[in-house]
Amino acid sequence: MTDKNTTIHDLQLSYQEFRGPLERLHTKDFSEVWLGDWSVNDLLAHMAGWFREMEGAIKRVEKGERPTPEGVDYSDSDAWNAKFTKDAKQGHDALKDFDHAYESYLAAAKSLPADKFGVDDGRPRIGNRLLQASGIGHFEEHQPQLDAWLAEREE
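^ thats the sequence. predicted structure below, dont judge the formating
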C-alpha cells in the first residue's frame, strides 16, 4: 500500500482504463446481458452504488467517525448489489451516473488527509482500504471481465 498521491493516481488510472472502451458502446450494447445476469447497465450501477457508499465512508472517517454507520453491515454484498442494480440507468445515462458517482468518490478521497494513507505494522490505513475495496480492487475485478466481453464482440 502506498501514500495518498500514489493511491489516488492508481485509482484514476484504473478508472480511465475501465471507462475508456465504454464510450464506444452503442446504446443497445449497454442492455446486453453478459456477466451472469448483468448487463453493462447493471455493472455500472453496481460500481456506482459502491462508490456512493464508500464516499459516505470516507466523509465519516474525515469527521473522525467509523467508516460504516452504526447498524449497517456490508458483508452481504449480494443484497447490496441487488439494491444498487434494481434501478440501474440505461445506456449512456448509466455511464453518466457511473461517472458522477466516481467523481464524487474521487473528490472525497482527495479531501481525506494524507495521514490516512500508507501502512501501519503491515496493515493498510483506512484511506488505502477504502480506495482499494470499492475502487482499485473493484476495477481489477471487473476489468478482465469487461475486456473479455468486448473482445468477444469484436470477433
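The chain is about 65% helix and 5% strand.
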